Amino acid sequence: MEAKVIRLDEVDSTNRWLRENAADEAATTVCVADFQTAGRGCGTNSWESEQGKNLLFSLLIRPDGIETRRQFQISMATALAVSDAMGDFGIKNTRVKWPNDIYWNDQKLCGMLIENRLSGTAIRDSIIGIGLNVNQTEFRFPQAADHDPLTTANPVSMRQILGHDIDREEVLRSIVSHLKICACMADFTRMRYNALLYRRDGQQHRFRDGEGDFQAEVLEVDELGKLLLKKDDGQVVSYGFKEVAFSRSEERGRRSEE
Q1: pLDDT tens digits for 89-119?
Q2: CA-to-CA distance for 19 and 14, rounded, in angstroms?
Q3: N or C: more exposed end of the chain, with fewer CB within 10 A?
Q4: How crowded is residue 148: how many other Cβ atoms within 10 Å of its Cβ?
């Protein structure tokens, strides 16, 4: 994946910059910023990052022949690319917290925001925004705007895990390289994604949906990106994005054990 790289000292959002300034670029385009004044996660969530410490970038890509209904394939490929890149730097046992956050030991290492633009029944292009904690060691991570405990994360950085500073440029090159590989293997990508799915451990966990809290086991994510859960009564249910979250009691319980 040959990419044109644009570097900015500061921008409100690298996703927004690409959307407004690189829509007609023929090649894959990467916009990297030292600081984002309005970095966003999924939905209404914000992303806090110390200037010059982390890797904040967006990629504009043009997937080949991905149907609109299968757009989650891009999320899976991106999540795997980041996870594989972490392995290059010695960070093992990362997990993908559905839909595409990267966690390490119940702590959030990376967040993503993927915006797809459509042409008929296929994806015309995708803007993939990635915020990866690289060298930051102190965090002032704001409460999610919707107070959703699934997105109110306990952050961690590569520096904190490995004990030394990391070259952000090397991390960027590794992620882009792995994305090229993962994007070419649709069926294998979903198998690997499910193997890395956060809390897919055969155990019951507490979730919350529009009807309240319940116990369920994480089964898998289907080809359309829906999360499949098996409730304690044996019923298998599927959820789209923002339709379910780990309950507050589950999140508090996990953190109290650390």
Answers
A1: 999 999 999 998 999 998 999 999 999 999 8
A2: 9
A3: C
A4: 18
> Cα–Cα distance between 45 and 132 in angstroms, integer?
15
Three-class SS state of 131: strand
- For the chain, give the number of residues: 258
Burial class of residue 100 in the structure, from the number of CB atoms within 10 Å of its CB (0-12 exposed, 13-18 middle, 19+ buried): buried
Task: Give the other-Cβ count within 10 Å of 188's Cβ.
Answer: 11
Strands across the sheet containing 101-104: 3-11, 28-36, 55-61, 122-132, 107-119, 101-104, 94-97
Single-letter amino acid code for the residue at 145? A
DSSP class per residue in 172-217: HHHHHHHHHHHTT-HHHHHHHHHHTBTT-SS-EEEEEETTEEEEEE
R_g (Cα) of the chain, nearest Å: 18
pLDDT digits 0-9 by tens, 127-141: 999 999 999 998 875
3-state secondary structure of 90: coil
pLDDT tens-digit readout, 33-83: 998 887 555 444 445 678 889 999 999 998 888 899 999 999 999 999 999
Task: Give Cα 222 distance to the centre of its chain.
Answer: 17
DSSP assigned state of 128 = E
112 closest CA partner among 241, 246, 244: 241
- Check: CB of residue 62 under 8 Å from CB of residue 36: no
In contact, 182 and 81? CB cutoff 8 Å: yes
Beta strands in 148-226 (DSSP E): 204-209, 212-221
- Measured between alpha carbons, how far is 130 from 121 in angstroms, rounded to an integer? 26
- Within the chain, how many helices (H) and strands (E) appear? 6, 12
